[in-house]
Each structure stands twice: as C-alpha cells, then as structure tokens.
Amino acid sequence: MYAPIGVLVVFSFNDNAVPALPLTDATTRWYVDAFSNGPLLDSIWASVITAMWTAVISVAIGLSAVLGLQRWGGSRGKGALATLFMSPLVMPYVVLGVSLLMLLRLLGVERSLATVILGHVVLTLPFVVLILQPRLAQIPAALHEASRDLGASEFITFWKVTAPLMAPATFSALLVAFTVSFDEYAVASFVVGERPTFPVYLFSQLRFPQQLPEVMAVAVAALVASLVILVVAETGRRIAENRISPELSEK
Questions:
Q1: pLDDT tens digits along 95-104
Q2: CATH superfamily placement of domain 41-207
Q3: Rounded CA separation 100/29 (Å)
Q4: How far apart (Å, rounded) are the C-alpha atoms in residues 181 and 53?
Q5: Rounded-to-integer distance, Cα 129 and Cα 186, Å
Q6: Could you report the per-residue pLDDT of 133-144, keeping only the tens digit for each?
Q7: Helix extents (H) in the chain
Q8: The whole model's pTM is what?
Q9: Residue 46: C-alpha distances to residues 8, 28, 52, 66 (Å)
C-alpha cells in the first residue's frame, strides 16, 4: 500500500530527469528548483490561505453544532441534524464539486479562493464534529450546572469552563481541517478561480514531462508536512487530555 509513496520519495532524489531505473546519483536540486518556482510558491500560499480560513470556519461551525446537539438531548431533530453533518463523508467528492459548481453558476458567483473555502468547509465539517463531539461528552454536566448556580451566564460558562476543557480537541480539529483542506483536489478543481491551489497546480503540471521531477519533490515535501501536522495534532491532544482527565475525574 505504501510502495507508491516509497517510489515517489526515491525518485524525488534521483538526479535523472526521467523517473526510470537504474537510479543515478542522489541530488536535492529538484527541491531547490521547485521552491524557486514563482507560480508554485503562489499556489502553496493560496492553499495555506484557503486551509487557514477553512479550519477556522469549520471549527466555529462544528463547535456550535456539537454544543447545539448536546443541548437538544434526545429530541427527534438531533439524529437528523447529526446525519446531515456527517453526509459529506459518504458523498463522492466529484458529485459534491459538480453540485457546488452548478449552484455557483445559478447564483452568478464568480469562482475564487472563497468558493474553494466554501467547498472545503463542507468537506472538513464532519471531521471537526467527530473530533469535538466525544470530547464534549466527557465534560461532566455538573460543571456547567455549578457554573450557572454561581450566577455565570451561558457565555461565561462556555468561556471559563467549556472552552478550556475543549481546547485539546479544538486544536486537533483545527490542524486536521487545515491538512484536509490543504491536500484536497477533487472539489477545488471544480470551484477554483484563476488562482489555483497547490493540488490543482500540481496536477496541471503533470502534463509537462520536464516538470515531473519538481512535481515529485514538492509532492514529497507536502506529504511530510501533512504527516508532521497530523502527528503534532494527535500528540498535543493526547498530552493535553492526560493533563485534563485527572482533573475531571476528581471533580
């Protein structure tokens, strides 16, 4: 399963411009050339901007959603709303991209990074909800009740009690949403404007054989960056959870 990734890594350091055996001398010049490429760097920056806004918006909506789902308790609408949030996980990305493109055309909205952010928020929202909901369920209801009994408002209770306890999961959700958005191609290819995101630009360069070594180098760099972000997110979440869990058990 990981063999193609291994092949990609090996040939990204191969001095031959043609990815074929036998291997020649090892080199890092493809990485140097790739990150000296102006359009490539612009596409990376476009993806960073898109991913940052996607992460912030998705977490804001996701946090509001899980708080609302918790408050609804066992009402009938809770199951339907939860299913609605999870539906992008089972919907083909191509179908979602085409549907969003048709909607934008009907509304007369020009394609841009903003439309990519819109599509990515839809895609990342289920991941955010799946990360935040279990953490919220672990917070004892007695903490909220005690805060309200002491005269705190709903906002103060959230800011002083819920938000700090949700911080590890919120941080993980931000990083996961950022990574998913940064790497996403299918939906972005339908709704992107004149300024391409990194995956869209990368795929477009595959048509030019002379660009293939640089494409492989950048793909490896993006893979490593994504893995680092996910590892940091999970490690940070576990460390914070281990610090907070004893406090919750005592309370």
A1: 888 989 999 8
A2: MetI-like (1.10.3720.10)
A3: 40
A4: 10
A5: 22
A6: 888 777 766 666
A7: 3-12, 29-34, 38-72, 76-86, 93-107, 113-138, 141-149, 154-157, 163-183, 186-191, 198-204, 212-250
A8: 0.79
A9: 24, 25, 10, 30
Write b or e for each residue in 210-229: b if 16 or more Cβ atoms lie within 10 A of its Cβ, otherwise e.
ebbbbbbbbbbebeeeeeeb
Residue 167 CB partners (closer than 8 Å, separation 6+): 240
Residue 14 pairs in a beta bridge with: 26
How many other C-beta atoms can be found within 10 angstroms of the C-beta atom of residue 50?
25
Name the residue among 217, 131, 222, 110 with its Cα closest to residue 174.
131
How many Å apart are CA 162 and CA 79, to the nearest integer? 23
Please give the Cα distance from 42 to 30 (Å, whole number).
Answer: 18
Question: Is residue 116 a contact partner of residue 188, using CB atoms and an 8 Å limit?
Answer: yes
Query: Looking up tokens 């490429």, which residue turns up?
Result: 37
Selection from 249, 248, 79, 244 nearest residue 171 by Cα: 244
What DSSP designation does 75 have? -
Q: Domain boundaries in the chain?
A: 1-36+208-250, 41-207
CA-CA distance, 130 to 146, in Å (whole number)?
Answer: 27
Residue 13 has pLDDT above 80, yes or no: no
